[in-house]
Amino acid sequence: MLHTLMKSPFETNVSLFSSMLKKTDDFLALQDGVLIALIDNIFLKNIIFSSANLYVIKEDVYARGIHKNISSDFILISYIHFVTLTLKNKKQMSW
């Protein structure tokens, strides 16, 4: 399953969706959701603990000027790779 986070983690129930993530799931943060990938933020441990594949949209990270502060647990991808993730995951959930 592909889980996408488009809103700031401060506007989302991170505990709920991180508890739903499985090892085989893909998690993608985009738009303001990329803030969840910041090093040392309060939500990061929950997401990493899920063991899901973690991605952030590179363009959104750079647009917010936070590219030097992204956790190495996340893979920066383009919108083209986002399309690939949607094709791979027939089931999707937006947060």
TrEMBL record:
<comment type="subunit">
    <text>Heterohexamer, formed by a dimer of trimers. The hexameric TusBCD complex contains 2 copies each of TusB, TusC and TusD. The TusBCD complex interacts with TusE.</text>
</comment>
<dbReference type="Pfam" id="PF04077">
    <property type="entry name" value="DsrH"/>
</dbReference>
<dbReference type="InterPro" id="IPR023526">
    <property type="entry name" value="Sulphur_relay_TusB"/>
</dbReference>
<comment type="similarity">
    <text>Belongs to the DsrH/TusB family.</text>
</comment>
<dbReference type="GO" id="GO:0002143">
    <property type="term" value="P:tRNA wobble position uridine thiolation"/>
</dbReference>
<dbReference type="InterPro" id="IPR007215">
    <property type="entry name" value="Sulphur_relay_TusB/DsrH"/>
</dbReference>
<keyword id="KW-0808">Transferase</keyword>
<protein>
    <recommendedName>
        <fullName>Protein TusB</fullName>
    </recommendedName>
</protein>
<keyword id="KW-0819">tRNA processing</keyword>
<comment type="function">
    <text>Part of a sulfur-relay system required for 2-thiolation of 5-methylaminomethyl-2-thiouridine (mnm(5)s(2)U) at tRNA wobble positions.</text>
</comment>
<dbReference type="InterPro" id="IPR027396">
    <property type="entry name" value="DsrEFH-like"/>
</dbReference>
<dbReference type="GO" id="GO:1990228">
    <property type="term" value="C:sulfurtransferase complex"/>
</dbReference>
<keyword id="KW-0963">Cytoplasm</keyword>
<dbReference type="GO" id="GO:0016740">
    <property type="term" value="F:transferase activity"/>
</dbReference>
